[in-house]
Amino acid sequence: MNDMLDVVLTSRVRLARNLQDLPFPGNMAQAEIAELVQRVNKAINTNNSFLLLCMQELPEAERHLLVERHLVSPDLAGCAKGAALINKDESISILIGEEDHLRIQCLLPGLQLEQADSLCASIDDMLCKKMQFAFESELGYLTACPTNLGTGMRASVMLHLPALSLAGQTEGLLAAISKLGYAVRGLYGEGSGTHGHIFQVSNQMTLGVLEEDIISNLNTIALRIIERERSIRSSLYKTNKLEIEDIVYRSKGVLQYARKLNAKEAMQHISNLKLGAGLGLTSGLDTQKLLNRLLTDVQCASIRKRSGLELSEAQCDEARANIVREALKGTI
Amino acid sequence: MNDMLDVVLTSRVRLARNLQDLPFPGNMAQAEIAELVQRVNKAINTNNSFLLLCMQELPEAERHLLVERHLVSPDLAGCAKGAALINKDESISILIGEEDHLRIQCLLPGLQLEQADSLCASIDDMLCKKMQFAFESELGYLTACPTNLGTGMRASVMLHLPALSLAGQTEGLLAAISKLGYAVRGLYGEGSGTHGHIFQVSNQMTLGVLEEDIISNLNTIALRIIERERSIRSSLYKTNKLEIEDIVYRSKGVLQYARKLNAKEAMQHISNLKLGAGLGLTSGLDTQKLLNRLLTDVQCASIRKRSGLELSEAQCDEARANIVREALKGTI
């Protein structure tokens, strides 16, 4: 399976849903939300295929980890009232009691928007057999914030665009995308900076559009960006072979040898190595898959979780370098 | 043979000599200097063990190379009037027609001041059998510049002091050395900056001291600096193990992988690797010897000479990276 892993890190679809018989979570008491959590859990988790995680019962480190892995939103992790239902392979997470009663989310590696959409739809179908969602024929699904009204759908792709960045073409491209009604953000959503040339593109409009059009339009846009990124990669490599090889191989050297690495630096070098892998400069069958996973594994909460210890920042930097060296051993 | 190669790059001794029957070179015509060159060549080069290089016949690149390898002074290479006699292993060079009629110079790897002194003395002995040097019993050897009067001897050691530098202790130490009448300079003599933590220490006084005292005092000073540098290296490593290993291994990564390297950067990384080799962090039998040679091989003129081409600066950076990668292949 190769779903454009050289350019697309992940595809994500989420649906906002609210129950007809309850006020929005902002107006619900803690006990009411706890009741909602149980209701949803009972509806969907009949054969224990989901893990129920109540935010207030989780240590801060665990909540950070869920945010880092894009399994829950910073808002849900921060408010401590809600909960999340997460399936075993972490492709599906259902956020309960965030801004809306439910956020059904599906996250898959590479460009798999349609598959993510289907997964979300199947959960949505299961749930709406057990509970009545707030829906009006004129507006569609009702949501706490009007920006989600209608389909309640937000679809996004996480793109790795080193060549467009190096060529100074991201700004122009991303401005054009904005005009088409798609938002561009950094790795961790709104307000987060871009590290390692990673950009998230998502739909803005939810009202007056069909779910399948949101998905297929974003898919088309993603394919065009992939094409452009790949084409600039190869032309950059043709015209600046030495420069590109120097960047890629130096990053390889640093990742293979550094004894401490901060998160930003690690991401930058992994990004460069991904560029190299895309250009065929590194061997190893599953390099892109490995590097994509590594981009998550080098985040702080993942490192702390893996170590099982309360690590200081300096200790985290050391552990990060060890994780990277271990992961790359013999593979590139 | 290990002559403190971890700290001492080279030992050098040079003797300034002038012939009694000639004015100093500053007052000599080109033809007179040419005559002097032939006279010296005839005296010392009976069995063709020396290569005679007349500066005005050498392309600029060749003259640069000689300066880079410390075989001739920038002054001799620049004025184009004089010549140099250089033996096969490049341990001895006799500069003719620089500031003084003769500069007998011996350059050896590691701490070998006494051996360098003996070599110089043997050349001096051979020459003074064939020609009369300007000498006064009160003053000793007469020289063009009074700073060389007396013994005409300048002895120096090139020291690699990364730990003293990292610990911020070079300034204090070098100020103390100055008080003892020894000068401290960068890699290429007066006015040259220090790159890669390399410092040259040489005697200032030539008058009213014995040759053997100049040598043995400098040797004592060098031994004390070596002891101090080594002790700080191991204590630095004990207290900052991760920091030091990170510096050393990152440099290893850069040197093994970079596709272009400027001279300053190359020297810095080689310097770090030398520190690592001194701490036992790299394997390979002759690492220090190899790295010391590499410090010379990465200089511009050496690279151009090796390529046999007129390289631009960018091409030089590429060639330098290739040379370094090749040299380090399988050895560290």
Write a structural description.
The structure is a homodimer of 332-residue chains. The first copy, chain A, has 332 residues and is an alpha+beta fold. Chain A folds into two domains: 2-230, 2-Layer Sandwich (Creatine Kinase, Chain A, domain 2); 241-328, no CATH class. Helix content of chain A is 48%, strand content 17%. Chain A has twelve helices and ten strands. Chain A has helices spanning 30-44, 60-68, 74-79, 113-130, 162-166, 170-179, 211-239, 241-257, 263-278, 287-297, 300-307, 313-328, and strands at residues 8-17, 50-54, 83-87, 92-96, 102-109, 135-136, 140-141, 153-160, 182-185, 198-203. An eight-stranded antiparallel β-sheet of chain A has the order 2-3-4-5-1-8-10-9. The longest helix of chain A is centred in the C-terminal third of the chain and has 29 residues, at 211-239. The two termini of chain A are 20 Å apart. The A-B interface holds A 242-243, 245-246, 249-250, 252-254, 256-260, 318, 321 and B 242-243, 245-246, 249-250, 252-254, 256-260, 318, 321.
